[in-house]
Amino acid sequence: NQDKDSASRDLLTSSFYMVALNPKTGKPANINQLLLKKEEDQRAFDEAEDRKKLKREHQKQNLFLKDSPTDAEKVLLHDIFLRNQKRENAKHSRNPADDEDQYVRMKDTSLKSISFMKRTKRNPSGSIFGGFLMNTAYELAFMCASNYCPGDITFAALNETVFKKPVPVGSFLRLSSKVVYSSTKQKQLYIEVLASTQDPQSTDPPQLTNVFQFVFKVPNVPRKVQPETYVECMKFLEARRMRKLGL
Q1: Residue 124 to residue 53: CA distance in whole angstroms
Q2: According to the model, what pLDDT value does residue 18 have?
Q3: Checking DSSP bridges between strand 224-226 and strand 103-105, what pairing results, if any?
Q4: For residues 60 and 70, what is the distance between their CA atoms, to the nearest angstrom?
Q5: Where are the alpha helices (DSSP H) in the chain?
Q6: pLDDT computed for residue 5 by the predictor
Q7: Any residues with CB less than 8 A from the CB of 245 and at least 6 apart, and which?
Q8: Do the Cβ atoms of 216 and 144 come closer than 8 Å?
Q9: CA-CA 20 to 30 A from 241: which of 61, 146, 180, 186?
Q10: Higher pLDDT, 208 or 1
Q11: Model pLDDT for residues 90-140, shown as the tens digit of each residue
Q12: Reading across the β-sheet that carries 172-183, which strands appear in turn?
């Protein structure tokens, strides 16, 4: 509605982290400091500073870097182990576990795709445009969330995004998504999408290029996601920490 009297509302708030690099050395370059003259400028600056601190706090707790699970998380992991053992024993006895309909294995939530990278999606550097990769990953993440919990799925956040390597034109882009955490209280799903490329003229294995982490709001979470392997458990705890930090 373009009527002047119609009320407007915010649909999306995005925060971007930009890095200035020296084109010759590839190292960080100095940038001009902001001059904050208005109260709203200072407020926006302070909010960004708070987000920066929150992001650094999460990085300190990254389970895949150096921080190990806390005592409370170790108890949670042991409960997950016991639940998996109970399910395994019930399977061998041909009797379903009591909570079989309350959980779904993380690996069973996976959705994958493969596509050919065309020149029309390249950036000025000659590689595939990062925005195209993010959009493609988002679409698969949305389908993964919808497959896990059919209904009115709403995008809530894009968390950690890692660009490890450029995606070359002419390569095969392989995307793999799965639900790594489900919150019944907040009615949210945390979806991880891994992107890897493969040279169609080579027998080398696919190379990981990107990691995307999406959050979706769902009508309800009928079943909780259940990790089985140690790597799955770490991904589960990582997403759980994000939720606690409000990411």
Answers
A1: 33
A2: 73
A3: parallel
A4: 13
A5: 39-60, 71-92, 130-148, 230-245
A6: 55
A7: 54, 57, 58
A8: no
A9: 146
A10: 208
A11: 766 666 555 567 889 999 999 999 999 999 998 888 889 989 999 999 999
A12: 111-116, 172-183, 188-198, 207-217, 154-163
